[in-house]
């Protein structure tokens, strides 16, 4: 009774957050230019209302009753965890004043709108004030929540609960040590031909191929859609309506398609949560005040990287599906599946994170985390970001950055206020390998299916072990239940070593 | 001080209602099929929240203060009227229980989703239960608000404040008497050639022509966009983002284009309201719980009919713009502006309201109002709607209805719960003629501009006399200020008589 009262209260919050997500989706895909400022205000209102509802007497009374009701349940019972998620979120939000939330929401919306133009015009200076406000808001947020070692820990914890910059540094050190010899080995080999990946291809043909591939991977268009945006993303308005987007242009069809497969991974996670969790704390990120979300953002990212890399960059997948893709795209005359597979696995340090190969990708992340932490601590000024970015690109990957469009303006993340979230990409890579290794070893028919390009058995395993649980388990609980171990870099380095190392 | 507190409270309500409108727009243009049910729940939550905010102690306390603050202002001062609009809305909503609002919102969303399929499949039976629920909810609503003569009066009053079925019947009688001889005269003449209006034309070309025409009429794409829907509509998320939609298919390009010009009229009204009224009770329909809205729905319709008919069906407009339209469409070989003008003014009783000529259009409305009133009073069962529809089409226009798709399933209005709103189309026709007659006689440069196809001076006159006022004045106040007289049928019958009557 009290639990259903709590679920009703959270359901209302979920409705408001889903509405906000529709407005976000619209603002990135459909919004006329003149509507951006008013839209930011509307989003601020919805965000504040969600927070007010969470902190309302109604919700807190329902929580008190529900807490007593679930006391006798198993510690990991879904509804005991739902109650816990509400408690955690209330504890956090009570520390953050409403004005700060409102400021953050506005800074994000305005930042995103300005970034679109700044990126198009390679004009960092026009974006700098918006970024400065985002950094200031993020720091004020960290201070309000409270921190002991590093303010950045608060931001990381919003996306990857419990993780700190110290944890990340230790993982990053292990990865750098492990990746270096594999990267050296890969770069010592002759590069495969990949010019045909830049063959011009009409947008509608690329979109048709993306539609086919995302369907092959299991994305459900009865409950989703695929649209064009500057930066691809996935977004959920409950499991019944989960949308993905992709870049579309005349060039780089492969980049567009791998982006779409990436977002498909996010989409599958959201579309396959337990239907009984809809509109509850197990499908609502009450900390981040977003609809949807899995065990952590890193966990979410593991699902997108798994689809993009472990499936999308595997030879077997293309042996099964290259022919249909080629037909839909037209062109690619004389190119066979294996040549395509080699091309999309070519290793070369480059400028753009979303175009990076598997061996250099994590260096892009380490760079961003380094800069974010320094911005947050006040060790780096916003005006110095382009210089620091370019220096770090040189240091990590030996690459010279010719302009900010292909440098520090390339990602939407800072513009959209997601300071602290970049680490989750590398955490996702690590988790993806850990889950994929176990799925292949233990999942019924998984390896057999993948050998034929059929991901259905893998989907079943992922649904059972990851997707259906929503926010019920923490990241490490989920990993331990699925693989027997908490987060570890081993499977990731093994996977990359086997694919690209000296023995490959 | 109290007034700004009230405006802040209403601003928040406007944000919630704008968010709801974005969800409505999305559900008609973008929503994947599987998302409809959850979306209905989200809309219900937003609608209830807007109502709760309106009836909250915060708003009512702010209202008490604001009422004292505006007491000394002129009776027609904008802010005194803003306070009055809040009072009127609170008085109404206090009578309507929350459950009924929730039921109404759900019935509308589900009704719309089901109607789309029912119309496509010509399957009235599948729509009947949804319609029955909409009628039941509408009747319960009328009973809750209270009525003396006819329950339908309550519904009409939601759209056209103060009007009753008795007022409508009297206006309709005058129109029937006046229209009959004009229609007879028009039908006695040979019909102009109009086959070329059905020339197939690719969707993207029709859309390009619509884009050009809507821009010529003054619609601002920095603050708007044009999309494809089954049933065209206009919707506002504040004056900064006002969207219009149009039908698009391979056939009937002219019908598509006139629909777009129609919605442009609605769009212009919303885009040109006084910017100082944004997010206040003067740009929020607090009675209907919608963002935007003018003096009344009939007033809004007058602006769309003015663009569609008085401008869009005038010879001078096409002498100026036909060439460009023809270029964008391709085809129409050998057709000149005057032939096009004659074709789009051809008179013939037909099945479809949105395709009806100016002389038969109002009969479509009278039929619907007749049926609605009977449904509301309980004199007509939902199951008997197709029969009653077909009988009335025969009686009013002598037309036989071959199927429900082209009969009682043709409009979205009932599906979307807008019982009582159809009368506003005819009220809009009458007002459009009244305003247009005065604008031509008294508006600086209006007649001169229109003779060259330039509507800019007319836009200025309409902005000054209609658009900028938002919900400040009532319909008859607005008409009296602009034309010197309250609503009257004379100018409309004079306009039609001159264009189509025996002397034409």
Question: What does this 3D model show about the protein?
Answer:
The structure is a homodimer of 504-residue chains. Chain A has a domain at 2-148. The first copy, chain A, has helices spanning 2-29, 36-54, 57-70, 78-93, 98-120, 124-145, 152-159, 165-188, 203-216, 253-271, 297-311, 315-329, 337-343, 361-377, 385-397, 423-442, 446-451, 456-465, 475-483, 490-500; strands at residues 226-228, 234-236, 242-246, 284-285, 290-291. By secondary structure, the first copy, chain A, is mainly alpha-helical. Helix content of chain A is 62%, strand content 3%. Chain A has 20 helices and five strands. The first copy, chain A, has a three-stranded mixed sheet. A two-stranded antiparallel ribbon of chain A has the order 4-5. In chain A, strand 4 and strand 5 (290-291) form a beta hairpin. The interface between A and B is large, with 36 and 35 residues.
Number of helices of chain A: 20
Strand content of chain A: under 5%
Structural class of chain A: mainly alpha
The radius of gyration over CA of chain A amounts to 22 Å
Oligomer: homodimer
Quick check: average pLDDT of chain A? 95
Number of strands of chain A: 5
Secondary-structure element order of chain A, as H and E?
HHHHHHHHHEEEHEEHHHHHHHHHH
Give helix % range of chain A. Answer: 55-70%
Distance between the termini of chain A: 59 Å
Task: Name the biggest interface.
Answer: A-B, 36 and 35 residues
Shape, principal axes of CA atoms of chain A: globular
Largest sheet of chain A: 3 strands, mixed
Strand arrangement within the widest β-sheet of chain A reads 1-3-2
